[in-house]
């Protein structure tokens, strides 16, 4: 989305409306040392000489995965439903920074793909309270039926 003028208000709006997810990425430092291991000699020896002090300083922690939060533009376009037809999926063992949308049921051509921003099995009032934190009152079919 383009803004005429970037203010803290529209920055916060953009942040709130972006789908963000915890993710784990394999240690880039470990990747670097694996890359060095594959270099031909004498580049490998030269690179090891330069990088060894850093490896010594890091100790075993060089292989720690990076944990953080990522923004996903496609998922950010998806509306919430308390009876969604898809799920934002991130397996614990995935370390490639990818998030996937998995269909929970057959989705017809032209049908809106929806995900749940919250635990959708909660009672109506609790769901609405949680979604109020996202700044909207849910108008999905399930909420309209239960309201
Ligand atoms: C991540 S965005 C979803 C995409 C958004 N509809 C758009 O056009 O950019 C989340 C926003 O969509 C709206 N929204 C999503 N699901 C909704 C729902 N079930 N009922 C009402 N508004 C919803 C709310 O304004 C919410 O803040």
Helices, by number, come to 5
Shape: elongated
Number of domains: 2
- In CATH, what is the class of the largest domain? Mainly Beta
Strand order of the largest sheet: 1-2
Provide the gyration radius in Å.
22 Å
- Which regions contain 5 or more consecutive residues with pLDDT less than 50? none
Give the strand content: 5-15%
Order of helices and strands: HEHHEEEHH
Q: What is the helix content?
A: 25-40%
The CATH homologous superfamily of the largest domain is termed SET domain
Give a short account of the largest sheet. 2 strands, antiparallel
The N- and C-terminal alpha carbons lie at a distance of 33 Å
Bound molecules: S-adenosylmethionine
Number of strands: 4
Write the CATH fold name of the largest domain. Answer: Beta-clip-like
Protein name: SET domain-containing protein
GO molecular function, one term: methyltransferase activity
Domain SET: 1-118
């Amino acid at each position: 989305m383009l803004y005429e003028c970037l203010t803290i208000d529209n920055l916060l709006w953009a942040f709130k409306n972006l789908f963000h997810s915890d993710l784990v990425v394999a240690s880039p430092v470990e990747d670097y040392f694996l890359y060095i291991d594959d270099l031909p000699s004498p580049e490998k020896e030269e690179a090891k000489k330069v990088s060894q002090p850093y490896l010594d300083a890091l100790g075993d922690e060089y292989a720690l995965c990076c944990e953080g939060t990522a923004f996903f533009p496609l998922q950010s376009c998806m509306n919430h439903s308390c009876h969604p037809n898809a799920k934002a999926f991130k397996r614990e063992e995935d370390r490639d920074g990818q998030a996937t949308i998995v269909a929970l049921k057959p989705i017809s051509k032209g049908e809106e793909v929806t995900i749940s921003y919250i635990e959708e099995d909660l009672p109506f009032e609790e769901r609405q309270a949680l979604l109020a934190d996202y700044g909207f009152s849910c108008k999905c079919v399930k909420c309209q039926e239960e309201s």
